[in-house]
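Before we proceed, please read the two lines closing this message. Report back on whether the structure tokens fit the sequence:
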Amino acid sequence: MGHLIPATSWDEIALLGSVKAGFPSATEEILETTINLNDFLIKKKEKTYLVEVDGDSMIDAHIADGDMVIAERTDTAKNGDIVIANVDGEFTMKYFRQAGSKAWLEPANKNFKAIYPENNMEIVAIIKGVIRKY
């Protein structure tokens, strides 16, 4: 690859196209545009916050202990969304599952069990992205 164009701020970074994650291919670095990370990652700034992940119940969804998730506040979710929910007074992050009027939370790790609320479950946020620092 040639030389990279440095970001002018933390908000904007050069977008150089894509890179193969399969078989290697010949390519030439071409500056396609710049991308504003705030615009790309955050659609509703006033409802969005970061939360650090504590635990590995979502590891098979590629969300690991120590990652930061981008969470957007809401009180509704669709089947299959990754949510932060308050279940019987405790907060957790899991897949939201619903069949008819029955709703529960499902982990992305076979070592954990699904969570079925005993009294109530309140959706607090939907996960919109994951940030991992190497």
